[in-house]
Fold:
Amino acid sequence: MLEIVNVSRRFGDFQALNEVSLQVQAGEFFTLLGPSGCGKTTLLRSIAGFDTPDSGDILLDGKSLLALPPEKRPVHTVFQSYALFPHMTVADNIAFPLRMSGVGKAEIERRVADVLEDVRLPDKAKHFPEELSGGQRQRIAIARALVNRPRLLLLDEPLSALDAKLREQMQIELINLQKEVGITFVYVTHDQGEALALSHRIAVMNKGEVSQIDEPSLLYSSPKNRFVADFIGQCNLLDGKVVSCDGATTRITIDGLGELAVQSNPNIPFNVGDDCALTLRPEKIRLAKSVAPESDEVHFPGTVHDMLYLGDVTVYIIEVKRDGHPVLIEALLANSAPGRARLLDTGDAVEICWPRDAGHLVR
Amino acid sequence: MKNGAKALLTLPPAVYLFLFFAVPGLLMLLASFRFPGDYGGLAPWYYVEDGAITFDLTLENWARLFETTLYLQLLLKSLLFAVLTTAICALLAYPLALTIAASPKKHRDLLILMVILPFWSNFLVRIYAWMIIFSPQGALTEGLNHITGLLGLEPVNLMFSSVAVITCLVYVHLPFMVLPLYANLEKHDPALLDAAQDLGATRAQRFWKVTWPLSLPGLYAGAVLVFIPTLGIFAIPDLLGGTNGIMIGNVIKQQFVESRDWPFGSVLSLVLTGITLVLVVLAGRLGRTPGALT
Ligand SMILES: Nc1ncnc2c1ncn2[C@@H]1O[C@H](COP(=O)(O)OP(=O)(O)OP(=O)(O)O)[C@@H](O)[C@H]1O
Ligand SMILES: [Mg+2]
Structure:
């Protein structure tokens, strides 16, 4: 439905977008995720029409949008700062796009009431934006962008100004709202947790390029490269070299850990001698004073180097010293029972192990 | 903050207003009911004779205001001049302020500096400059009369006319309109215009639905700053107006300086102050639109 084709954009000698291509399906909740300055807003502004790419094309339902000014595009934006008109009531704010497209008076009234119902603020119609809380303003901004039923709704970090509790609540509401109205959402955030929670699919961006586009679970379990692995969730990144590859199993050496067997990555072919990185999620690692490894597990002794109590879990940094170089590996223990939070202490000798297929091999 | 502390904070402005507005105002009010002194100034307003006080006050000064229509006409004409000046200033200042507010940040201060640059030279010198521009031998008049001659019309004289007065009034007061308008426009969040455009508003709709209503407080502030001094001004019509361009300020000055009739001068001043106060209160009401930028 929305197609971005080889879009590039340069500001001076800074390449903000570099050959970005992606496709968004109708009805999808699609997220652009990436660190600050990676070009998310620039891409969103190009879709809305506020910025023009230097090259490439942006197609909606097969037709190029580039020749259309923003006011002619069937695309509405929810701005990060809400951008509600301070001199208009909530009802007038929401009626604005309807008036601009010449909808009749009775129809406007009906649709404003409907959409206020959708965002669960039916009694705020007569209020001015300055009389609303941050979360309420956010919902009005979304209502205003939705009321004229755009083909595409663009949201640029719409929740970043809200506190954590409210943000979580708004995330749930956004998911439900999108399901209800069935409009395609393109959502920008630099918060990976938010992206994973909300999206059908995510495009991870880095330095103006798309690193990977996948469903949240696939992004998390099979990142395509170090950047994605590191950016999405907590991850151990262990640099190494390929020693041998034989179908399902690849043997690699990692500085400090020596040689170990890992599952091959069917999507990335490796040759002997290639540089590689093993990405290993902390929750996949078993950690205890002593563990009995299963037959398909690799197993290392270490000491607790540091610990970080997070409430639900405690993060342990384990130092493994096999052949001289110390390697730091992050592992978790859930604080599921009382007393478990203090099970291990800094300096304790421990053992860690993980199944061969727990790690994920990337370049 | 405690109530006591609040009262203490409002004390200095209250004292200031009392000393420099209320007291002189009340003195003028008293003067407007007194007789003029034999040699100008004011006659005593009470006598003490044998321990009894007799007041010597009159309504005559106020009655004089309505004896002829002259003063009311002049008042009306001055109001018209002030309204015209304010309107022309607004028409000229709005695009200027809009352009400055929309220009790159680094140029804005320089442009605003150019707006207030005329203030660096003396007010009277600037009026004299206009006398030269409007003089019958000036290039402007000669050029105009060359054209009227070609068209077979009577030659015009710009000097000592309402046109000369209003032109100079606009020239002098324009910065007072530009500055509050600019201060307002510069604070508008550009995201609002983006949002309006995103939601389907054309350039003209963006101006009339967003920029214009949000700029009204600035416009009202500018209008007050131009209107008030214009209404009471006497220097400009004195020098450029002749008999045609005379305004109420000239008559007030005349009463105090030449006719030495302070009581009647006080009557005229009070009327002017009253009109101004009413209009300022009205503008204040209008300027307080809900949700407008403050
Ligand atoms: N108009 C512009 N002129 C010059 N540089 C720009 C312009 N717009 C964006 N950039 C640059 O392009 C880069 C990408 O900007 P963009 O706003 O798209 O980042 P982002 O991914 O949205 O970041 P954030 O998460 O901080 O909002 C930034 O380094 C920014 O400085
Ligand atoms: Mg951004």
